[in-house]
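Morning!

As promised:
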Amino acid sequence: MTTIRLTNTKARRKEVFEPIDPTKVRMYVCGPTVYDRAHIGNARPVIVFDVLYRLLRHVYGADHVTYVRNFTDVDDKINARAAEMKAAGDTRPLEAIIRALTDETIGWYHADMDALGALRPDREPRATEWIGAMIAMIEDLIGKGHAYAKEGHVLFRVRSYEGYGQLSGRSVDDMIAGARVEVAPFKEDPMDFVLWKPSSDELPGWDSTWGRGRPGWHIECSAMSRELLGESFDIHGGGIDLQFPHHENEIAQSMCAHPKGGFAKVWMHNEMLQVEGKKMSKSLGNFFTVRDLLDQGHPGEVIRFVYLGTHYAKPMDWTEEKARQAEATLRKWRGLVAGIEPAPSPAPSVIAALADDLNTAGAIAELHALAGAGDTAGLKASAALLGLLDETMGGWAEVRGANADAAALIDELLAARANARKAKDFARADALRDGFAAAGVIVKDTPQGAEWELAPDFDPAKLEALR
RNA sequence: GGCGGGUUGGCGGAGAGGUUACGCAGCGGAUUGCAAAUCCGUGAAGACCGGUUCGAUUCCGGUACCCGCCUCCA
């Protein structure tokens, strides 16, 4: 069996991956808060962990891997966005607006991530559907002395968990020292974080022994991973920005609620994304959603290829130049594998690269080697492990067919050009050549004669003008 | 201030203590009436300063610069 090595953020080193149960490999990745379109930074963990999911399925069998990614659909930002909509004239009750907003956003998320070639996780729990489990977990934590209720809030007693700070490498005292920590009056300690908070009448809320309220962000992932994957599972992933406080808090909650479970065995964090060398931000004007890039004409497969060109643990830069190169490479490869039956399994070199801490850039180099060696069947099978060159994603690279009239005209003009060349009327021949290019007809001269295909900007009127 | 990541050839970007990364661009050649496409070949690197070593871009330390987190922004 393939040996997979992964960098475990918690251990701060690369480790051999040994699933708790090889017949039931379990992975949890933090999903989006659904109040707006996913931006291109949100897409990075989706693509990274999609490749890991594919690799795990390849190594352990598709039926032996469970991938869970949540939707956070109860959150202050969602409430704020819904309030904006109401202020802008939406007459529905706030809860109805919120439901419509989160439903629509989830639909967008699915469409956008599908376009990037990401497989849907096995389970995509919505936080609002697991409130009961969250309340039960909070009650359990209170019962064990790790949490306390005060003024309608429930807070986690950070000092009660001695391992707090281990994942992110911080001590509680350091954190307090440097810190702009909100010291709410109901907190015993400044570091304590919210498990449950009160909700106003018009905002979404659930009844509990602490009054009507809603869960804090961190408890969602602890409760849902417990319900769907158990008290211990193999991999927990997410962006490095979530390492603290979100993942640290998840660990504290889960380890205190289920001391024997161990929670996630391996923690993986992807580094962040920049745009043209700068942090993506609305003020710099370099803020893009995935949908923006798709609408600009960047095919999802091209976006995916750009992301896979940089190792997940390194900062990645999105640039137009990279997109251009990725598109050219994929177009070339798609030409090579068109109509080819993929090999029964991916090339060992590609598997080896991915098994070495998800070295996607190395895997792409191996794909180049396969393409160079003419192993198109191997290329196709291996690219599939990266979610590339899939039949269903290739629409963008397909050459547009010409209708019969246009095809006949192109053939006629090509014949005219051949005659002009034969007659050494190079002015006429070159005029036709330039005309084809301007009309969006790509002509390739081969020893067997001229071949042609249509570019995306094919213009029949310009072609007609060449007569 | 605390914690963490990064710095590789013109550009992007990997691995490995000693032997070609790879891709794009460039250059040379084949092919072509000239091109395009294609094919063949090729130069070019390791932020800076020390240390360990027979030998370091690869290990260790320091410096500079960049980035992230410490604020429920992936």
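Residues 5-270 of chain A form a domain with the Rossmann fold fold (CATH 3.40.50.620).

Hope this helps with the figure draft.
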